[in-house]
Amino acid sequence: MVNNDGVLVSIITWFLLVTSTLAIVSRLSTKRAVSRNFHTDDVLAVLALVFSIGAGVAVSVQDANGLGMHIGDLTDRQKELFAKSSYAADLLFIATLCFAKLSMIALFHLITRRKKCRLLSTSLGVFTTIWATISLITAAFACHVPFTWNIFGPHCYNKVHYWYTFGIISIITDTALVLLSAYMVLALQMSTRKKILLLSCFGARSIDIVATATQLRYTSAFNSSDFTKTLWPFVLITQIIQCTTIITSCVPYLRPFIDAFPPDIFTSKKTRRRENTSGTREKYPDVLLQDRETETNAVGTNTAEYDTGNDRNSHQWERAVWEKHGSSE
User: Is 193 exposed, middle or buried (0-12, 13-18, 19+ CB in 10 A)?
Assistant: First the structure.
């Protein structure tokens, strides 16, 4: 009997895809209920899911054509389908990671107006885009033209070196995302409890770092003369990474975390005006999460003294906002 470890990979892959889909649906539902608006970060997260589903389909084709089986047991047709599906899965995996990371970066732009934070997040976004683009081009030409997909051929670059380099840079970008989010949250004007909650929210990205580090251990499978048999752990961890990167990009939209953000952060100025049907003059400026210095300039008073976790001080902040912005109307 042929030992086909790929069946396990296929089953887990589809379970992970269902989990990722539910995470995105939950994210969009919460966002819609809270703000009635979608933003760039949501579009990027959905794109990440689409590419992840495509990668999952490619892995299923791999499973059906030799993943987890000895290379000597495969027919020429199976080898061709295995190579093509592996080629597609690699490209889609890279695209999934790229859009999931960019989704987090777009969220940073949404929740802060600090110039330094925006500059750092923009720089990280540019670096991530360039890294992903170069990785895609390199993966697309892994072997000589015209059979760039034929990993069974003699004219291909060393994939161990490629995936090791790719994984190291991916870990660096994820680490930068965690550090940038921590820097951004610590500068916010809010209670310590809410800061800790948001830090744990964005810190969930550390799971991706652990998963990618684990993947590096199995890159040596590409050097095996029987790599169709030994490659299945690497493929499995790749699918896990895709799932975790999507889920961690959705964690900030879980209800306990989204409640920690200041009011109206996800609501546009136009929407707030339309919804203000009570006839009162209460209105918030078009400001998202701001640091103490920015809020001081916007309100014209030292709002650093106010704690958004305290109802009384929160009311003082709203009154100060009105005195600065509402009176101009």
Answer: exposed
Report whether 241 contacts 97 (CB < 8 A): yes
Residue 309 pLDDT > 70 = no
**Residue closest to 132 by CA, chosen among 105, 94, 161:** 94
111 or 83: which leads in pLDDT: 83
pTM to 2 decimal places = 0.79
d(CA 74, CA 62): 12
276 to each of 11, 172, 263, 318, 324, how far by Cα in Å? Answer: 50, 44, 14, 15, 18
Q: Report d(CA 210, CA 183) in Å as an integer.
A: 21
Torsion angles phi and psi, residue 156, rounded to 5 = -130, 150
Q: Element (H or E) spanning 300, and its range?
A: none
Give the pLDDT confidence of 86-139 residue by residue, as tens digits.
999 999 999 999 999 999 999 888 877 788 888 999 999 999 999 999 999 999
Phi, psi values for residue 143, rounded to 5°? -130, 170
Matching residue, tokens 């009154």: 319
Each residue of 18-44: b (16+ CB within 10 Å) or e?
eebeebbeebbebbeebbeeebebbeb
Quote the CA–CA distance of 171 and 63 in Å, as a whole number. 28
Residue 277 clears pLDDT 90, i.e. is over it: no
What 3-state DSSP class applies to 156? strand
Alpha-carbon span 262 to 132, nearest angstrom:
33
Which is nearest to 52 in space by CA: 102, 13, 100, 93? Answer: 93
